[in-house]
Design brief:
The chain is α/β, with parallel strands linked by helices and 765 residues long. The chain is built from 22 helices and 31 strands. The longest helix has 27 residues.
Length: 765
């Protein structure tokens, strides 16, 4: 006897070849019925024998298409209709939109083979794609994922592409961005004034670009999520020119090379790092550089690691076909602290004096994104930036009672959505001090609320009263949503807990630059006893002044002077310049000197004391230089004790004496200990201190799990040392796996706290 079922599949199941996959399975098992897309995912009507239906449903879950991610499969009996065949039907629209969008991924091997085949009709067509690869998130305007709802809408399919598009057995069945040279977008080459030089002739464009790169010129390339700036990474003059034009004196450039063999010539590759480089997401991976005479030292000046990625678009592959060992700088085209440029209208105006040549195309990028960045410690990957290739993949979570929007932090801003059983975190917009970044954040927020049909009844923001992201939360409150705020460092730890599907409690190490604290001061060196509902501040570094406030973040010598004054008063044992003495006067008189206990700022100050950094040009530069100096140490056994004592206030356990740390460093300077040894000892001493404090807190609070979050944990050396120290003491250590430890995780933590507060009855709409 035949039976009939409705099968609902939720997750990333549109735009990934799911319907043809179901169609082929149905034919294999003799199932009749239909499959369609709708606002909730994929809906299947299936009729057949019970045993065939069981195998059919099992294979839907167990062997989905490569880009699919199934979060839920629901089956329910349905009225028998007596279908004679199985069909793929058109998308259905409805009021509820609760499906997910696949991220952009690299061109697949099958498409790449066709792209390089002189007899294929898509030979050298740079927009070649199929159900298993290519642009998705960057081109989608709305759900359901149909061509009319993408930036491919202006390009009607030719007869041959339409035939492939309509054939359920074809690899391009319902591939919305599919096209060919006859009907799809076209590539163009232009000069800095926007005048077209070559249109459509891809081999000629590739030849001209390679020629100009070989001559040391800078080329702007429109990629999947925005424009890159490229130059020859082996040509120091070209790299210096790019640094000068982009006004980027220190921050390292990302590199692209043809394959793993090429990358292995200049960097060390572990198993996990190889997997990441070759993955469909194609992130930038930070890798330790080998001694070589290939790369210009200007690519990552004075740094021991290179950020490398492999090609992911057809055109990028073309740049390496004649020479897989070519190395190109491939950095985002943007003005400092502003988002990546993705608009054809902006690129010539903003980059016309930076690039000598422009490769563009006539398909819009609707949602921009930078390349994702990761590093590996002990074969475990860690994000620095989660963006292209990973966003907007959702996080499975406990159900949200209502739609919740989290506005995140102002630095490395991401925002987040909680809807039903899923959390969705946006790509980083950038730092919200810039009006251009603020505008892009609002545009991206509108885009996400449209795509995911979000009607937020609760908005959650940071506690910092001056954040732009906080003002967005306040503005949305006026539209009828409830507004609540979460302390910055609580959100950090809550994000780790949410990633590990835990409510806590944990000992939370929130080590970062600065965040607004519960006492109104700037926190960032926090040991918290926390769960997703709340936290107690258990220990922290003692406060020190931040002379000039935010000015000290770039002029880090101010922090060094503040640390010296706190430790020695007027009797500072190091030589001071007249300018230094002026700053000391400001500190003594407490003129614009907010109080801070941030470990990130301590790193800046110690870097200054050692003469490594005085004034920096980009975030975390002083700390990065300090870490790099430590990597050169010949003595990895030295450390010094850092004193801590019972906290003078009843709501905390310990106060760490920042003064003792500074005095130990000054003592090593006076003893003429080499800078690399001092720097390594500083890292090692912090790690040992962390282990000791956590062990003391375990005795008091009976907690054996430690969660690590905050931008300081992007320091590879300190991260490994702290994990090692904690594991030696038999702690269970929780770190971020799918999100960065920096402020890119704040929105995620805000959502976790808001949901916990709702569950406890603390928060109501």
């Amino acid at each position: 006897m035949k039976e009939s079922y409705l099968i609902r599949i939720r997750g990333i199941v549109q735009g990934v070849g799911f319907r043809p996959f179901v169609y082929r399975l149905a034919r294999q098992y003799g199932i009749t019925g239909s499959v369609c897309n709708d606002g909730q995912g994929v809906l299947v009507r299936a009729e057949g024998n019970r045993s065939d239906l069981d195998r059919f449903i099992r294979d839907i879950s167990g062997n989905p298409p490569p880009l699919a991610r199934i979060e839920e499969v629901e089956t329910s009996p349905a009225g028998y209709r007596g279908y004679s065949s199985f069909s793929v039907t058109g998308s259905k629209t409805g009021k509820e939109k609760n499906t997910f969008i696949p991220p952009d991924t690299r061109v697949c091997d099958q498409c790449l083979t066709e792209y390089q085949n002189t007899r294929d009709r898509r030979y050298r067509y740079p927009f070649i794609t199929c159900t298993h690869c290519g642009p998705r998130f960057s081109i989608i305007r709305d759900i359901p994922y149909d061509r009319k709802n993408t930036t491919m809408a202006p390009f009607p399919l030719c007869n041959e592409c339409h035939r492939e598009y309509r054939d359920p057995l074809d690899r391009r069945f319902h591939t919305q961005p599919t096209a060919c040279p006859r009907c799809g977008p076209r590539l163009s080459l232009a000069d800095p004034q926007g005048h077209c030089l070559i249109r459509g002739d891809v081999p000629e464009i590739v030849s001209r670009v390679i020629s100009d790169l070989d001559q040391g010129k800078i080329v702007a390339l429109k990629g999947v999520g925005g424009y890159h700036l490229a130059c020859d990474a082996t040509n120091s003059r070209a790299v210096r020119r790019l640094r000068s034009r982009k006004k980027r004196p220190f921050k390292p450039f990302a590199l692209m090379t043809g394959n793993l063999d090429s990358a292995a010539r200049v960097v060390e590759l572990g198993k996990r790092e190889r997997e990441l480089l070759e993955s469909a997401q194609r992130p930038i991976v930070l890798l330790r550089e080998k001694p070589n005479r290939i790369l210009s030292p200007q690519v990552a000046p004075h740094l021991s690691h290179q950020g490398i990625m492999l090609p992911y678009s057809p055109f990028q592959f073309s740049l390496f076909e004649d020479n897989p060992l070519r190395f190109l700088v491939m950095t985002s085209a943007n003005i400092s602290d502003e988002p990546i440029i993705y608009s054809d209208r902006e690129i010539f105006g903003k980059m016309g004096r930076v690039a000598d040549l422009f490769v563009t195309y006539n398909r819009d990028i609707h949602t921009p994104s930078d390349d994702s960045v990761l590093f590996v410690v002990d074969e475990q990957s860690h994000f620095i930036r989660r963006s292209k290739g990973y966003v907007p993949v959702p996080f499975f979570s406990s159900p949200a009672p209502v739609d919740i929007l989290a506005t995140g932090a102002d630095l490395k801003n991401t925002f987040g959505l909680a809807k039903d059983k899923f959390l969705i975190i946006s790509q980083p917009t950038g730092d919200l001090q810039s009006p251009a970044t603020q505008e892009e954040m609002l545009r991206s927020l509108d885009n996400f609320t449209t795509l995911f049909d979000l009607d937020p009844r609760v908005v959650v923001s940071d506690r910092h009263p001056g954040y732009f992201s906080t003002s967005i939360g306040r503005r949305l409150t006026r539209k009828g949503a409830s507004w609540t705020r979460v302390y910055h460092h609580h959100a950090h730890i809550a994000s780790v807990l949410e990633e590990h599907r835990s409510a806590g409690p944990v000992i939370g190490l929130a080590f970062d630059g600065t965040g607004y604290g519960a006492d109104g001061h700037l926190w960032g060196g926090e040991f918290l006893v926390a769960d997703t509902t709340g936290f107690q501040r258990a220990a922290h570094f003692s406060y020190f002044p931040l002379p000039g406030g935010e000015k000290a973040i770039l002029e880090v010598y101010r922090i060094g002077l503040a640390l010296l004054y706190q430790a020695y008063g007027e009797n500072i044992p190091l030589p001071l310049s007249p300018r230094d003495r002026q700053i000391i006067t400001l500190i003594r008189k407490d003129i614009h000197c907010p109080r801070c206990c941030s470990l990130g700022r301590i790193f800046d100050g110690i870097s200054s004391l050692l003469g490594i950094s005085r004034v920096i040009t980009t975030e975390a530069e002083a700390a990065i230089r300090l870490e790099e100096t430590a990597f050169k140490s010949s003595d990895q056994n030295r450390f010094f004790p850092i004193r801590y004592r019972p906290h003078p206030l009843p709501d905390a356990d310990f106060l760490i004496e920042t003064e003792s740390l500074v005095q130990a460093i000054v003592g090593l300077i006076h003893d003429r200990v080499p800078l690399p040894v001092i720097s390594y000892a500083f890292h090692q001493s912090l790690a040992r201190l962390t282990g000791e404090i956590c062990a003391e807190l375990r005795k008091i609070h009976q907690i054996n799990r430690v969660a690590l979050s905050g931008g300081v944990f992007q320091n590879r050396l300190l991260l490994k040392q702290i994990i090692d120290q904690l594991q030696k003491k038999q702690f269970q250590v929780l770190t971020h796996r799918e999100l960065p430890p920096n402020d890119g995780c704040i929105a995620h933590g805000q959502l976790a706290v808001a949901k916990a507060w709702w569950k406890k009855g603390i928060l109501q709409p």
